[in-house]
Structures are given as C-alpha cells and as structure tokens.
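Hi team,

As requested, here is the filled-out complex form for the flavin mononucleotide run. I kept the field names the same as last time so the parser does not choke. Let me know if anything looks off before we queue the next batch.

— J.
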Amino acid sequence: MHIYFFTGTGNSYRTAQKLKELSVANGHLSLLTPVDGLKRKDIKPAPEDHLFAFFYPTHGFSLPWHMLKFICRFPSGKGKVALVNNRAGMKMGRLFTPGLSGIALLLPMIILLIKGYRIAAMVPLDTPSNWISIHPGIRKKVVSSIFLQRENEIAHMWACLKKGKGYYPLKFFLLLPLDLLISPISLAYVFYGRFMLARTYLADHKCNGCGLCADRCPVGAIKMIRKQPYWTYRCESCMRCANICPEKAINSSIPLTVLYTWLFIKIIAIDGPLKFIWDHLEGLGNAPFFLIKYMILWVLTFLGSLLLYQLFYSLNRIKVFKYIFAFTTPMKFWRHYIAPGFKGKY
Ligand SMILES: Cc1cc2nc3c(=O)[nH]c(=O)nc-3n(C[C@H](O)[C@H](O)[C@H](O)COP(=O)(O)O)c2cc1C
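And here is what came back:
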C-alpha cells in the first residue's frame, strides 16, 4: 500500500501513520509519503491490484489546493484507492460532533474514477478541529478521546481493506445531502476564500524572527522579509505556522478579515451572481457583458486584497499598529492546537 498525505497540524499525518502501522504489523509493505514538494515524475505507476490511500484535511468544505493538484496529476491506473478526509471533530458537553466535508471526498472520487481507479474506501474522519482563527483550540483531554475513537475507526477500515472489502461508513451517506447543498460554498472557497484567508496573517510584537514558520510551512508560502514573516498567495491556511510558533506570535487579523468579507459581499453578492440573476429575470439578455464585468471585478478584488495586505503588513512594522492588530484578534487570547507529538516535520 502507498499512503500519500497532506497535513497542516498533524491530524492527517497521525491518522495516516496509524494505517501504515496496522498494515506493516500485518506483514504488508507500506509507504507513507507527504505530497509537499512531490513532483509528478516521482509518482510511479503501480500494478493493478495496488492500494493507494490519500489522507488530507477539509478546508472550506473542500480539500487543500495542493492535495487537489496532486490528485489531478496522479497517473491513471487500475488500482484501488482509499480516500480519508480529516475534518473538524469537536465535543460539546458530552456530545462528539462531526465536521462537514462538502466536496472534499466527492471531487477526488470523481477525478480518480475518471483515471480508472476503483474506490475502496470513502472515509470522513472527525479529528480535532484546528481552525483556531475562529474558535479556541480543543482541550488535551478531548483531543485524546477523539483520537482514540479515530484509531478504532482506522483499525476497522484496515480490517475491511485487508479482506478486500470496501469501507464506506454510514456517516458519509448521512451527511451527503448537506455536503451537496453547501457545494457552492466549497467552490467559493477554492476560487476566492483561500486566497483571502492567506492575506489575513500577521506576526505580532512577540515575533523574534526565528523563521520556524517559514521553515515548517508545507507549501513554502512564507517569506522572511527583514526578519518578519510575509504570507504569499501560496498559503493554504493550514494553520501550521500559527500553531507551531513558540511565541504564539502569529494571528489572523480581524480588521483584514472584515475588509475582505466586505469586498466579497460587495463584489460577489451585490455586484455579482445576485445581480446576474436579477438581470436575467428582467430578460435583458446581457450575460456575456455581465461575465466580462464579473471577471474584471474578480481581478479587482484580488488586486484590492493584495494592496490592503501590503498596507497592513507595512503598518504592522510600526509598534502601535502591531499592538492594535494583535489585540483585535481573538486568537491572541485562546488555546492553540497541534496534533500530539507533531513537530511540523515527518
Ligand atoms: C482554513 C480551514 C478551513 C477548514 N474548513 C473545514 C470545513 O469546511 N469542514 C470541516 O469539517 N473542517 C474544516 N476545517 C478543520 C480541519 O479540516 C480539521 O481540523 C483537520 O483535522 C485538520 O487536519 P490537519 O491537522 O491534517 O491539517 C478547517 C480548518 C482550516 C484551518
């Protein structure tokens, strides 16, 4: 078996590792490979009965662009594939709550079916949520209990796979209608949201310029400029940088998020699709002109976000602004999250 993974805070790595351990313990030869930095020529076509597994997080009801690109470039073949999508597991009171995959399993499934593979497993795996820009990191005790459940789930999955049976847990089908319903949001994330999120990170007054964030970024998205991290559009918002920073100096800026959200609502919702529907209803028949306008507005949004980030990044060099940005984000005040034992290296 060959397991490929992409991870931000280590959940997908840890769960992929568990599958590898189980298969090795059963005498199978298994490889575990991060997709970061992997080239197409490094991926060898495999024999017909070969099993591949892909582990990755959910980002914006979709999958990280880096992983999607890797799957798109994956050579065609006749082997079997297990798709394992790590998503936001939480605990509210006594209740463990699931995340929502959106198209994170469906899109790779379609791509790999077209490439000739058979789908041996489709698994949404509710591992601790790492999205600390919007909520505090999960408590250690809860993290351990969530991982215990997931490890049992992987053991069950492996038991099915080694017998040559498929594994498609009921929870995948139960949430499928909701996953499909939110698919427009997934697309908005892929084409817009991920770029905007990438432009909300700033390092505060605690940053000592050590460069660990840039060194451990899985996609090489962080540049160090005059001992300050700068986030480029390559950023996947995987949250590794913010969570491994020893000084907890990396924040997702609220003023920037508000500005981007406003830009998004204005350009996509007010001047965008809603206007399109309105114009269409009026029977004006100006769809081609609208599309051109829509694309221009889209480009302007990107340029706007670039300029805004540049402005905030420059202001962030001035001490008073550094404090303003740091203390207008809730991330500053709450627990961070990293999978137990994960150091940002494999
Ligand atoms: C930017 C971002 C977006 C996310 N979007 C979703 C989502 O749409 N649905 C979900 O269930 N979890 C979402 N999550 C949570 C992660 O998918 C989840 O915590 C996952 O286990 C992280 O895996 P990793 O440690 O391998 O990166 C998101 C996390 C981040 C940072």
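Two things worth flagging: Residues 196 and 261 are 9 Å apart (CA to CA). The mean pLDDT is 90.

Thanks,
J.
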